[in-house]
Design goal:
2 domains, binds S-adenosylmethionine, alpha/beta, globular, 10 helices, Rossmann fold, Chemotaxis Receptor Methyltransferase Cher, domain 1
């Protein structure tokens, strides 16, 4: 059906051209087995735009209006699954071991800034989880620090949700009732809003991890979380991304990646540190 997108067929040639376009702009690499995913997500957008084919969509992306359309493309091709307190052993290692260690380093460095980057923050669950940990430590290990959590993502759609800070119970399932009461205002049966104290700690910025030359504009960090996004990248993009993180971390501070993401092969500037049921990468001195 012309203009609907839903029944359009993506040819093998369209797939390769669009796959390469997405890869060049975002680092996200779709194997042949993911053709259906791209076909469905882009088909949806083609329908909204009343275009007639995938090749017309590629022309639009490559044409003068392309940079505006890129925002929609990124919303469509990203997978944004996340939740609060995701991978509890890792969050607990951050809370109990990493935070005291890096706060000590920050204190010795002088100044009162303590900065965390949630790179690929999706709808905000990760940065707000880190904000909870920081709020809970404000009178102890983080006493005297001005905490800043920079949360970035390529998808503007999820970042808008993140800034709103409103969540249902499913994504909150890992939080204890005490933490839920402490950090959220309940607005309805299944409607919770992050308290202003947490929101104030988090600054959202649209940031594409393949814009390697822009990493330094974000400044230096005491901890970087980049979880469950490197799996979408190929080796070349992983290597450059991890190098970018390395440059933005102070010596002996940490990069935390997802549970299933080993960056060993790409991360010569880091040392793998084992915690109880979790790992982290510490920048070498
Ligand atoms: C599965 S979510 C992970 C969210 C969170 N870090 C967590 O572990 O729960 C992956 C996120 O990576 C983002 N992403 C993908 N490619 C990106 C890129 N090139 N730059 C920035 N963010 C990207 C997606 O938009 C998505 O929100």
């Amino acid at each position: 059906m012309i203009g609907s997108g839903s029944s359009l067929q993506m040819s093998a040639q369209d797939f390769l051209a669009l796959r390469d376009f997405v890869y060049n702009r975002s680092g996200i690499y779709f194997r042949e087995t993911k053709k259906y995913f791209l076909e469905t997500r882009m088909g949806r957008r083609i329908g909204e735009l009343s275009l007639n084919s995938y090749s017309d969509y590629l022309k639009l992306l490559q044409g003068p209006g392309g940079s505006e359309e890129l925002k929609f493309l990124f919303n469509e091709v990203t997978t944004n699954e996340t939740s609060f307190w995701r991978n509890p052993p890792q969050i607990e290692a951050f809370q109990n071991i990493i935070l005291p260690e890096v706060a000590d380093i920050a204190r010795k460095r002088g100044g009162n800034r303590f900065r965390i980057w949630s790179a690929a923050c999706s709808s905000g669950e990760e940065p707000y989880t880190l904000a909870m940990v920081c709020v809970e430590a404000k009178d102890t290990v983080l006493r005297g620090f001005n905490v800043e959590i920079i949360a970035t993502d390529i998808s503007e759609r999820v970042m808008k949700l993140a800034a709103l800070g409103q969540y249902g119970s499913y994504t909150l399932r890992n939080l204890t009732p005490t933490r839920l009461r402490m950090h959220f205002d309940q607005k309805g049966d299944d409607d919770f809003e992050v308290k202003p104290e947490l929101k104030r700690l988090v600054t959202y910025k649209n940031f594409n991890l393949v814009d390697y030359q822009n990493y330094r504009t974000l400044g230096m960090f005491d901890v970087i979380f980049c979880r469950n996004v490197l799996i979408y990248f190929d080796d070349a993009v992983k290597t450059k991304t991890i190098h970018g993180f390395l440059e933005q971390l102070y010596p002996l501070t940490y990069l935390m990646v997802g549970h299933s993401e080993s960056i060993h092969a790409y991360a010569t500037g880091f040392e793998l540190i084992h915690f109880s049921m979790a790992t982290g990468y510490r920048k070498k001195a």
